Amino acid sequence: MRSQSLRTRRSLLDLNDLSGPELEYIFERTAAFEKKLPKRDMLSGIAVLNLFFEHSTRTITSFTLAEKRLGADVISLSPRDTSLAKGETIEDSAITLAAMGVNVIVVRHSEPGFPDRLALAFDGHVINAGDGPRAHPTQALLDIYTLREEFGSLKDRNIAIVGDIVHSRVAHSNIEGLKGLGAHITLVGPPRFLPDSFAGEGVRIERDLDKALPESDAIILLRIQRERFSDGPQSISDEEYVRDYRLDGQRLAKLKEQTIVLHPGPYNRGMELADDVLIYAGWRYAKQVRHGVYVRMALLDFLVNGNRRSR
Length: 311
Ligand code: CP
Fold this sequence. Notes:
Blueprint: H1 20-35, E1 47-52, H2 58-69, E2 73-77, H3 90-99, E3 102-109, H4 114-121, E4 125-131, H5 137-151, E5 158-162, H6 169-180, E6 184-188, E7 203-206, H7 209-212, E8 218-221, H8 238-245, H9 249-252, E9 260-262, H10 275-278, H11 285-310
Parallel strand pairs: 1-2, 1-3, 3-4, 5-6, 5-8, 6-7, 8-9
Bound molecules: phosphoric acid mono(formamide)ester.
Phosphoric acid mono(formamide)ester binds at residues 56-59, 130, 139, 264-266.
């Protein structure tokens, strides 16, 4: 049963939409679902639409599994096959979808703030499944859940996030979430991918990956997001990037024994990681994607049933 002190939430647009107690509640439910799947009736009568304007393997599949495991009516639309192609605005689509009984929209789009626009027009719950480089709150939820399972409290843990920070919605959401839980964050990357402006309270910048490795409890690797290079050319060659920032066997040898390595996926072998990482004992990628299903079940239950119970 939910604590009475938890507020009901309509949508999840960014991670800081969730209070500390709400985060704890979602993680408790995630653990419960991981231990034992509930009866497939928790979202009985609830229609969930997955609307992905950008490519996805992990997020759309895990949301779909989560929705089906909770008994929702699941619809997945490919945006290019919708009437948006005929000039209908997203706001008018939202009104239409709500009128026919869609209760939840899970949306991914390249435009920062697109889910917020949708949420303003839609009479239901909107979940941001990634909006351009801005935010990917459910990825941060599953990353933080994975880190907590490993370490318990994240207070004073040293977490390094390595690579193309500026284009990474995952990095942006994780920085917010991890800072709030008291972790020390070290961002590692070249200036093109990591402007000095990212430094702040609880967040420092390190240009030299080899210096960051020995002190890190966890390392989150990122893909170079070439699809978001509209802000300028790469300006560091692939060869230089691999030389300075790829995690490989030699660099793994510099880690403490218990250090774990995460990656939101998709990963590009040979660029940000060498195959050595995939057989490293602390590689937690499979756990992350597994947790993604349970975290999304917990979030859907929180948003929909929290509100249903409070009516
Ligand atoms: N981590 C992530 O968002 O993966 P997809 O792009 O495959 O959904």
